[in-house]
Predict the structure.
Amino acid sequence: MALTRLRRMVEEGQGMSSRQQLERILEIDRQIRALKYPNARSLAQELEVSERTIYQDRQFLVDRLGAPLAYDRKRGGWYYTDPNWALPSVLVTEGELLAFFLSVEIAKRYLGTAFEAPLRSAVEKITAGLKGQVEVSLKELQECYIFAPPSVVSVKEELLLDLYRAIQQCRQVKIRYFTASRGCWQVRVVEPYHLYNLRGDWYLIAFDHLRGEMRIFHAGRIDQWEVLSKVFTRDPQFSVEEWMAQAFVAERGEEPVEVVIKFDPYQARYIRERRWHSTQEIEELPGGGLLLCFFTGGLDEVKRWVMGYGSHAEVLAPTSLRQAVEEEIERMMQLYRKSC
């Protein structure tokens, strides 16, 4: 595991966390720089700790961080003899460093491999900025954790960065997009509103000039793009959260309808564990099964999802979805019978 010289920041008598001491040290530093000349008594009252705790914080500043701290008898408080001295750029605990490492490893897999180089660069910069306060071995951390990367469509880092800037600046973007359902390429002009990451895949939520409405575009199907100089005005009434609440996974579809799926006792054990949709409700059935109910317009995605459970799941509503599943099963039966 990572080793840190800050782990002894927890004072023995108070049992305070290192995070709390870091906050106190930052406050002491802030008051000194504001020329408030704080002392142990005033700080203890303000931070609601003992004077002994403040003196330990002061000792840490001097002995461990090298603070040029002195006492001004006339003003009755502390000051820096060298006003240019500064706290180390990063003060972290072992737990915080571990959390950062985990976030980097997860981000590499869910942001996409194109971001591995910038993420590694970020680790190096932060480690360099620790100035000896923390020693960390990323190799040792990697030996303790395994992250299984999802199967994702590759997306260019430059595309995500350009889309991010276009969203910030409200600039239109021209894209060459592959519509997988029709198997064709089209040039679209869109007004980008939001980037949405789902299990590692990136989606762009944007107003599509061709369709005259908000649409979801898979960023991995954009092979050419140009950020235009023309700006657009965002609809102040548009809410990404409300708009995506109608979707199932990343498919939004038409107007939402109620979906009811019956799961047998075996599969119900696993269905109960997760939140599948923001509108979902679960009705327990005699014998251990359950009904999963929610509202969505993404019925094609629901069909693919529910068929993954085979005979353990049955669509009860809407009728159109039940019929679509029946037709798909019939086609599968014909396919397998033919192969025999």
